[in-house]
TrEMBL record:
Cross-referenced PANTHER family: TRICARBOXYLIC TRANSPORT PROTEIN
UniProt source species: Saccharomonospora viridis
Protein name: Tripartite tricarboxylate transporter TctA
Superkingdom of the organism of origin: Bacteria
Keywords of the record: Membrane, Transmembrane, Transmembrane helix
Annotated ranges, domain DUF112: 23-440
Pfam families, alphabetized: TctA
Amino acid sequence: MDFASSLSNLVDGFGTALTPANLLFAAVGVVGGTAIGVLPGIGPAMAVALLLPVTYGLEPTGAFIMFAGIYYGGMFGGSTTSILLNTPGESASVVAAIEGYPMAKRGRAPQALAASAIGNFVGGLIGTIALVLLAPIVASLAVGIGAPDYFAVMVLAFVAVTSVLGRSRIRGFASLLVGLTIGLIGLDQMTGQARLTFGSLHLTDGVDVVVVAVGLFAVGEALWVAAHLRNKPERPLPAGRPWLGAADLRRTWKPWLRGPAIGFPFGAIPAGGAEIPTFLSYITEKRLSKRKDEFGNGAIEGVAGPESTASASAAGTMTTMLTLGLPTTAVTAVMLAAFQQYGIQPGPLLFEHEADLVWALVASLFVGLVLLLVINLPMAPLWAKLLHIPRPYLYAGILFFASVGAYAVGGQVLDLLLLFAIGVIGFTMRRFGLPVLPAVIGVILGPAAELQMRRALQISNGDLTGLVNSPMAAVVYVIVALILLWPVLRGVVRSRRRAKTPTG
């Protein structure tokens, strides 16, 4: 697909996204995503998971336009919490707290919020333009990918996500194992054999991904917070109306433009989302800044650059999810589950089979970014007031909506029991420091990885070399090996350097 046809399809997508009904869906998504994302401990992933059941009555295009708004709104909301409360709503907002909260303590919360909002807009805009240019090319190249290649890429996604997130690789792989086990529940896709159903006919269809996502994110988080409510929460700092002066603009426009160059590539590869690129952006801005003494005390560049990076990274993850069907962040994992609920499988053929839906979704990303800026900048003081909601009421409401959403999936009491059982698993994972994302990735990609592996082995008559009989698969496994062996190699290099260093 050439640039001209991509541009033509995008124009058609805007024709769909700019209808009054779809504009309303986008606005509701932005406002709802921001409102939920602002609340402490609730990031875009939980916002999308909680609102996923709400969209069941909508046709797919309207639902995904709303999701686009929720995605970007949730990211802005998470940054607001970081700046005003020093409590990141998600991992991508951690860096915003490093400089944003000190700015707020110095009375510069309006400038920090403005740098964050405009950074999100600029980074998302550039990242989405890159998505328009690159996604059709990636999809056309991916059409020729066979079962061994797909399995290798999924293994890379598993290893990268589990190795990057959390303090311990063992905990990351333990979380992945939890997700893969839940993904096994139901009928074997190739033989029809029941697995881990314990004689329940309801479980033969497997555990709905929505129940898993809401259970691990919403219920697990609510139980975790309830167990720690004795800790007195910190009161948020006053927000004020976001604005930037001429001096602030001179300091922020370059970080805004540098962010996408770091964020989009990291988002597009299976490397765990925005955590690494936002820290890289922060380090880059600190090295390039002429005011290094301000870093740690409220440097506005330390908010502008990482926020632009995080938004561009989100566009990169959308590229991978739409073209390869690989979710690399919690939000795209939940969105992939939403696609599957509508019987749509993201991947190389999505741009051919569901062209109208895809380009309307891409166009809605642009619309959502504009609405984010227009609606949320003036409403920042209002969002800050949501931070005063008492935690018991907040998480009781989350449990209520999570229960209603899970029951709406299948109308079965067993779904509620599964929801809270998985919620307890989510609570236990937080208790022992296991990251949640690998588990969600395991549930969603596990069955697909198993299917691709068995297809590859069928083609090779059970010969294990059938998993590495293509150049792409071989290259991917080399990358996997490097990721796994990197800590060992780094330790060997350091020990040799110490051995060569003369002791005084």
